[in-house]
Amino acid sequence: MSDLRLEELSAATIVAVNALGLKPGQEQFITPVSYAAAAAVIPPQTAWQRVVLEGDRVVGFIHGNFDPDSPQEEFRAALWRINVDAGAQGRGVGTFAVRALIEEARQRGLDRLTVLWERGEEGPEEFFLHIGFRPIGETPYGEVIGAIDL
């Protein structure tokens, strides 16, 4: 894990991010990264998108959003998406990426980071709880709203 680093999402890395593999059953919880990248260029540009590299290989992607003026508290500092390649899962890649996002939120003077997730057998709930997010509510669509105080 000491060889992990972050870079901004770019034209050079988006193809590799879109090609990240998933474990069976995880695909129902993920939309293509290119959707997130497209959303990031629509004003206001509040997205924080990074790829996780292990050496020169893309092994993950994280998309955070910072909009301290959002009327909805859960969208002021939010983890919108995290993808870790199936072969890299369980090795600390996701934890590394989320901790970097948490540090970015702290540097911006924010005191809470939120995330939405769907419950399901192969879903991300166990990971988010392990990181320290705690459920604080639910969306009208049944997604869990999780938060971690910084």
Structure description:
It comes from Leucobacter massiliensis. The protein is an alpha+beta fold and 150 residues long. It has a single domain, classed as Gcn5-related N-acetyltransferase (GNAT) (Aminopeptidase), CATH 3.40.630.30. 25% of the residues lie in helices and 32% in strands. It is built from 4 helices and 7 strands, in the order βααβββαβαββ. The protein starts with a strand and ends with a strand.
Q: Under the CATH scheme, which architecture would be assigned?
A: 3-Layer(aba) Sandwich
Shape: globular
CATH superfamily, by name, is: Gcn5-related N-acetyltransferase (GNAT)
Q: How many domains make up the coordinates?
A: 1
- CATH class assignment: Alpha Beta
- The quaternary structure here is single chain
Sheet with the most strands, sense and barrel status = 7 strands, mixed
| Poorly predicted ranges | none
Note the beta-strand portion: 25-35%
User: And the CATH topology?
Assistant: Aminopeptidase
Give the neighbour order of strands across the main sheet.
1-2-3-4-5-7-6
Q: How far from one another are the termini?
A: 24 Å
Query: Structural class, judged by helices and strands?
Result: alpha+beta
- State the order of secondary-structure elements, H for helix, E for strand: EHHEEEHEHEE
Rg over CA atoms: 15 Å
Helix percentage: 25-40%
Organism: Leucobacter massiliensis
InterPro entries: Acyl_CoA_acyltransferase (IPR016181), GNAT_dom (IPR000182)
Pfam family, one: Acetyltransf_1
Protein name: GNAT family N-acetyltransferase
